[in-house]
Amino acid sequence: MRLLTHNLLACHARACTTTSNNFPLIFKDVQVELIQAEPNPDFIKGFLPKIEWNALVKTARSLGQDVLPEQSPDFSKPLNDEALLNSLHHILLEIHIMEGQMICPNCSHIYQIRSGIPNMLLAEHEINK
Fold first, then answer.
1. What is the Cα–Cα distance from 14 to 103, expressed in whole angstroms?
2. Residue ranges per domain, the chain?
3. Class assignment of domain 3-126?
4. pLDDT tens digits in sequence order for the chain, 129 residues long
């Protein structure tokens, strides 16, 4: 699972509500693999407005990646900072979480990650209806 995907995931267990702190999910006991990917600056630029910057920075730092600035870039202007684009490419597309857990900071529900795939399915009694 790439950090690009992680930045889009939130807990939807019954114990969590829309006003709760269910994002970002916190990694625990993860195995990280670096897999090189072909750079695509246009993809990164197009996806940036969808990124929750503070969550990305927090998660990247929890994995030992401290190259992103604390302050979000101004996405209303063209991003031409090549170093930042390279850092974003690495963090979003080349860091893969292969095994471990994601834990909801609100309800502590655990989502397993196996072979790089997060299991976001909930049991019937866990579904928020």
1. 14
2. 3-126
3. mainly beta
4. 999 999 999 998 887 866 668 999 999 999 999 999 999 999 999 999 999 999 999 999 999 999 999 999 887 788 889 999 999 999 999 999 999 999 999 999 999 999 999 999 987 776 755
